[in-house]
Design a protein that fits this description.
Largest sheet: 4 strands, antiparallel
Distance between the termini: 45 Å
Order of helices and strands: HEEEEHHHEEEEEEEEEE
Shape: globular
Structural class: alpha+beta
């Protein structure tokens, strides 16, 4: 059990402001992790980039690992976000990476919108659907079997499925 607690504290992902993280998602089959929160941003980190640059420092002996675990000093283990995506006007409630393309993800927000992002151009929104639901949009997921479908749900009890090829509501 001690080892698990230590592993959870190896990296600290930084970049959100305030009590931000609400959504957290690993990309399929790679080392990217994204987070969305109350600061209205989606942040993306690439753990592999960090591990490559710090590979010699990550080979620590038992004494160094024990010192980190007991000191609670993670100043050398913080990872700054690689991408910062802005486009929502309220809290980002959930996000989901594309089932096959690690460069694409979608996010939903309390502003009732869904945004699809292509992080190869992080400064702009790929496309946005406003008023996706009548109330706060809380959950989103990309279909694993059909890479063109995205499902979302809201506090009004509604669920919708969107076909990204045509950007229209299926159900």
């Amino acid at each position: 059990m001690k080892i698990i607690a230590l592993l959870l504290q190896i990296f600290r992902l930084t970049g959100h402001q305030g009590m931000a993280p609400y959504a957290l998602e690993w990309a399929n089959n790679n080392s990217r992790i994204a987070s969305g929160g109350s600061d209205n941003k989606v942040l993306i980190w690439d753990i592999e980039d960090y591990q490559t640059s710090m590979s010699t420092q990550l080979l620590m002996n038992k004494r160094e690992l024990n010192a980190i675990n007991h000191s609670n000093d993670f100043s050398n283990l913080k990872i700054q976000a690689k991408y910062e995506l802005k486009g929502h006007t309220d809290c980002v409630e959930d996000l989901s990476f594309h089932s096959k393309n690690k460069e694409i993800l979608c996010s939903v927000s309390s502003d009732k919108s869904m945004i699809v992002w292509d992080i190869r151009t992080p400064e702009k929104v790929a496309y946005k659907i406003d008023e996706l639901h009548k109330e706060d949009t809380h959950t989103v997921d990309w279909c694993v079997q059909n890479e063109y479908l995205i499902a979302s749900g809201a506090s009004d009890g509604s669920c919708v499925i969107i076909d990204t090829r045509k950007v229209y509501l299926v159900y």
